[in-house]
Design goal:
The complex is a heterodimer of chains A (217) and B (264). Chain A has 217 residues and is an alpha/beta fold. Chain A has 6 helices and 9 strands; from the N terminus they run βαββαβββαααβαββ. The longest helix of chain A has 13 residues. Chain B is mainly α and 264 residues long. Chain B is 76% helix and 2% strand. In chain B, strands 1-2 form a two-stranded antiparallel ribbon. In chain B, helix 2 packs antiparallel against helix 3, helix 3 runs antiparallel to helix 5 and helix 3 runs parallel beside helix 7. The longest helix of chain B is centred in the first third of the chain and has 31 residues. The chains are: A alpha/beta (217), B mainly alpha (264).
């Protein structure tokens, strides 16, 4: 199962604060201004499509992902997921991996996955978790506290959590940034076989056959 | 069944997360109520012993201990709601897991309920020991024995509503959260948990009526005399509803700003 997604004339600006340098910056109120990130962004993503967003730092790749996930509101225009505004789209049909990885570092990897599964309220938690552990090869460290994980292990766990219940829409922010070559090939395999609609941001292009379309920002 | 599975999941996660700092949380929860009730209790005991007065406002040598015990419990439950919930939100913000509140496949009310249940279970142990102590020192009437089930959830939720406001203030500007703590301390003082309202300076007394915690405490203490002050029960729950609505309105109105800051 997969979902369609559309951006209609979407613009996003951020309210930023500018401070002067030295003592002036300490004693005067910061200057606030709206900085536009992008505007008039239009595209449609078909069900099952795998789309890669490429662009330099600060071009708004992660923001596009957050808008699609309903984690941000656009300053102008609208984002729709299956004819519903992204903010009202049910989150149980969505798997998200952000660059902050959203992991409870005080829990083990297994407990993180278990918590995510239980929130879905389904009975078969064990089956889904075991499948995720095998799919992303987490066997050797899944019972360790996340605090002790390397960046790559955290990225794998975040990937496992985002794809845990095989949601129809998957949003992945820089998923390969910390992955080594063998684990990258696991990720390519996932992309080639998943029926879900997948949106990915990255700094680098992906191998042939893994991605359906590239959008440059 | 689905709701129970979700609540169970939240329960397990909270227990696992708190297992590393169990003692700290208990200290934070109890330190204010323990210090307040012991200090005020010693002052009352000294007054009744050396002044040979039978009454101090509505307090007497026989009823001040049960009255302080109820105040201690009300304060503990309010602290539990206030500190636990807001600290939880703050620690999720620092740990960069706060967006999960919006990404969770269940409703935010379920997440909130799950966290509150964990806290209520912890507090119920304290309640048990306080009532055990009360049962030995005084005769407990049946309504008073069952009163915790009505009042303590009220105090817990009142603290939680204030905790939501505290986390709202923090998430918009972390430097201003302490302002909210000062307001909370004022609310505790004017809640008359330890000092009856007639003993407060006369210029402060009218402010007590604006405080839902005061109404809750008045209603609970009225049970000691055998008749429940229903208007005060109404005061507690009306205040509770107003504060929850206020926190909800503020969170919804500034949702996008909170969300943007929630990524740490």
């Amino acid at each position: 199962m997969s979902l369609s997604l559309s951006f209609e004339e979407v613009g996003k600006s951020f309210r930023t604060q500018c401070r002067g340098r030295g003592l002036r910056g300490l004693f005067f109120f910061p200057k606030k201004e709206n900085k536009p990130l992008f505007s008039g962004l239009c595209f449609v993503i078909e069900p099952g499509e795998r789309v890669l967003f490429l662009g330099p730092n600060g071009s708004g790749k992660t923001t596009v992902l957050k808008l699609a996930g309903g984690l941000m509101t656009p300053s102008s225009g609208k984002v729709f997921v299956e004819n519903l505004e992204a903010q009202h789209f049910p989150k149980k049909k969505m798997g998200v991996m952000l660059s902050t990885q959203l992991l409870y570092t005080g829990l083990t990897g297994y407990q993180n996955l278990e918590f995510a599964t239980r929130l879905h309220g389904t009975g078969s938690t064990q089956k889904a978790i075991q499948h995720a552990i095998r799919r992303w090869k987490l066997e050797t460290f899944v019972d360790d506290i996340v605090e002790s994980y390397s960046n790559g292990q955290r990225a794998l766990l975040a990937l496992a959590r985002a794809t845990l219940m095989d949601p129809p829409l998957v949003l992945l922010d820089e998923p390969t940034a910390f992955l080594d070559v063998p684990h990258r090939s696991l990720f390519w395999r996932y992309l080639r076989t998943t029926p879900s609609t997948v949106l990915i941001t990255s700094q680098e292009n992906f191998p042939e056959g893994t991605i359906g379309r590239v959008i440059h920002l | 069944m689905k709701l129970i599975r979700q609540l169970y999941g939240i329960f397990l996660k909270e227990l696992a997360l708190q297992s590393r700092s169990r003692l700290n949380i208990l200290n934070r929860l109890l330190i204010g109520p323990v210090i307040s009730s012991l200090t005020v209790g010693m002052l009352y005991a000294g007054f009744f012993r050396y002044n040979h007065s039978a009454q101090l406002g509505p307090l007497s040598a026989t009823n001040f201990i049960p009255s302080l015990a109820l105040g201690f419990l009300a304060h503990t439950y309010m602290n539990a709601g206030y500190y636990f919930l807001s600290n939880k939100i703050l620690s999720e913000w620092i740990g960069r897991t706060l967006p999960l509140i919006w990404l969770a496949p269940c409703g935010r009310s379920v997440l909130f309920l799950g966290m509150i249940i964990v806290e209520a279970l912890r507090c119920s142990l304290i309640t048990f020991f306080v009532f055990l102590f009360l049962a030995q020192s005084t005769t407990l009437s049946l309504p008073l024995l069952f009163s915790p089930f009505l009042f303590l959830p009220g105090f817990l939720l009142l603290g939680a509503a204030l905790g939501l406001l505290r986390s709202y203030v923090f998430l918009l500007n972390e430097g201003r959260a302490e302002l909210m703590d000062h307001c909370y301390l004022g609310m505790i003082f004017l809640g008359c948990f330890y000092i009856p309202q007639p003993l407060l300076p006369s210029f402060l007394q009218p402010f007590c009526f604006l405080n839902p915690a005061f109404h809750g405490m008045t209603a609970w203490q009225s049970l000691e005399t055998g008749t429940l002050a229903w208007s005060s029960v109404g005061g507690l729950f009306a205040g509770l509803i107003v504060l929850f609505l206020l926190s909800q309105i503020l969170w919804v109105a500034r949702k996008s700003q909170i969300l943007e800051r929630s990524y740490g």
